[in-house]
Specification:
Blueprint: E1 4-9, E2 12-20, E3 26-28, H1 33-37, E4 57-60, E5 65-68, E6 71-72, H2 73-79, H3 82-91, H4 97-109, H5 117-123, H6 130-144, H7 154-180, H8 193-202, H9 213-225, H10 233-242, H11 248-259, H12 267-279, H13 285-293, H14 312-328, H15 333-346, H16 349-353, H17 361-370, H18 378-400
Antiparallel strand pairs: 1-2, 2-3, 4-5, 5-6
Helix pairs in contact: 3-9, 3-18, 4-7, 6-7, 6-11, 7-8, 7-18, 9-14, 9-17, 9-18, 10-11, 10-18, 11-18, 12-15, 12-17, 14-17
Bound molecules: s-citryldethia Coenzyme A (SDX).
Length: 425
């Protein structure tokens, strides 16, 4: 394969180097383009543009491949845990038993919030959206840990990462408790990461909530599958904010805000709302598909910027949803409706021609419903899962890229004109 790309512009020939990744993906290095030609590239939505090299996650959208640090998602999903995956993404290798034990102990150590943080919750209305609360309080952690606003050592990074990954559960659970009017349930260091979260969500004083091992396993799987996905919008946001040397708390808080959008992490809630509309007879799979074809409706949980084949996470989540409902002895009509909708869409050329398949959000809500997690908390669950990925990318950005992210533009506004005094307008 050629090592350079030739660009001819205004009679000038420019040889642009091609960089190649370890999986054969190639990028044309245009870092000299404007200096040599006066031109920039124009690529709305960055569909063809990579701002960085990265060694964390590999996605092959054409073949439905997802690997965390080289390990196929199918193997990690089947045999790993969320805490182990967090270590893998952040530190690059599967942890030894001793490393995993120390990391788990660090997460236990960091599970409490400063007691003053509770006052922040008092300032929010009971129906305040938990994503707004999560991003606000995550950012405020920097006020309680000023010594970690400037991270200058691996030890400080490890401590900040442990604090965020641990406390994000407590913040999320407290925001849910606030919405229900129930007292905050403090974390219990004797419980595992996921079991502790479910305890904080659903235990009530003097009545311990004891989730089934299947429920704990399903939550760990859910978080593992959401842990990273290379340069998605919210991760790119974290990298962009981190490129200014903003602190880790502020950077992941920005990631939470980006994730909230309906086209991104908010889609899991949109899927359930869509399925409920069908369940309640307000629409049907056939009507949804017709509205999509008339460009009047987007099928939430379908389509993806990268996957032009099945999202491997959707396959795993679909099976896990079935499995969990069976083990919990629960039935959820939304699962049958989702499968009916998927079958109808994939039988229609409109979807297959556009390579629109179920993505990570299409079945994930079924699992969260089975765990009794309310729809408003669905994007929050996505954010808890994505924390290790955001932290890993923030660190990589700070270690390996030294340029602040500052895209250019093609200006299409007014040409120069003189100020007009108000009496002459
Ligand atoms: C996530 O990037 C990541 O990795 C994200 C994520 C992660 O792990 O971080 O994987 C998580 O965000 C998953 C996506 C969740 N969002 C949704 O489910 C919302 C519904 N999906 C879409 O809005 C859309 O598919 C996107 C946003 C996911 C991708 O949009 P693109 O790549 O910009 O594609 P597009 O909007 O240009 O659509 C291409 C064509 C268009 O039709 P034409 O104009 O060519 O005729 O496909 C159509 C679109 O109208 N299309 C859809 C559709 N998605 C695309 N039509 C109906 N329903 C949809 N869901």
């Amino acid at each position: 394969m050629t090592k350079t790309a030739t660009l001819i512009i205004d009679g000038k020939t420019l040889e642009l180097p091609i960089i190649e990744g370890t999986q054969g993906d190639r990028g044309i290095d245009i870092s000299r383009l404007r200096a040599e030609t006066g031109c920039i590239t124009y690529d709305p939505g960055y569909m063809n543009t990579g701002p960085c090299k990265s060694a964390i996650t590999f996605v092959d959208g054409e073949n439905g491949i997802l690997r965390y640090r080289g390990y196929p998602i199918e193997q990690i999903a089947a045999r790993g845990s969320f805490v182990e995956t967090a270590w893998l993404l952040i530190f690059g290798e599967l942890p030894s038993r001793e490393q995993l034990s120390r990391f788990s102990a660090a997460l236990c150590e960091e599970e409490l919030l400063h007691e003053d943080v509770k006052h922040h919750f008092e300032g929010f209305p009971p129906n305040g959206h938990p994503m707004a609360i999560l991003s606000a309080i995550t950012n405020s952690l920097g006020c309680y840990h000023p010594e970690l606003l400037e991270i200058e050592s691996r030890g400080e990074f490890y401590l900040a990462a442990s604090k965020i990954i641990s406390k994000v559960r407590t913040i999320a659970a407290f925001s849910y408790r606030k919405s229900t009017g129930r007292p905050f349930m403090y974390p219990n260091p004797a419980l595992s990461y996921c079991r502790n979260f479910l305890h904080m969500m659903f235990s009530i004083p003097h009545k311990h909530y004891d989730p089934s091992p299947e429920a704990v396993r399903a939550l760990s799987l859910f978080l593992t599958l959401h842990a990273d996905h290379e340069q998605n919008c919210s991760t790119s946001t974290v990298r962009m904010v981190g490129s200014t040397q903003a602190n880790l708390f502020a950077s992941v808080s920005a990631g939470i805000c980006a994730l909230w959008g309906r086209l991104h992490g908010g889609a899991n809630a949109g899927v359930v709302e869509m399925l409920e509309q069908i369940r309640d007879g307000k629409t049907s799979p056939k009507d949804c598909i017709e509205l999509v074809k008339q460009k009047k409706f987007r099928l939430m949980g379908f389509g993806h910027r990268i996957y032009k084949n099945f999202d491997p996470r959707a396959r795993i989540l679909k099976d896990a949803a079935h499995d969990l409902l069976l083990k919990l002895g629960k039935l959820d009509p939304l699962l049958d409706i989702a499968m009916e909708l998927e079958a109808a869409a994939l039988a229609d050329p409109y979807f297959t021609e556009r390579k629109l398949y179920p993505n990570v959000d299409f079945y994930s809500g079924i699992i969260l419903r089975a765990l009794n997690i309310p729809v408003s908390m669905f994007p929050v669950m996505f954010a808890i899962g994505r924390m290790p990925g955001w932290i890993a990318h923030w660190y990589e950005e700070n270690q390996e890229q030294t340029k602040i992210h500052r895209p250019r533009q093609v200006y299409t506004g007014q040409i120069i004109r003189d100020y007009v005094p108000i009496d002459e307008r």
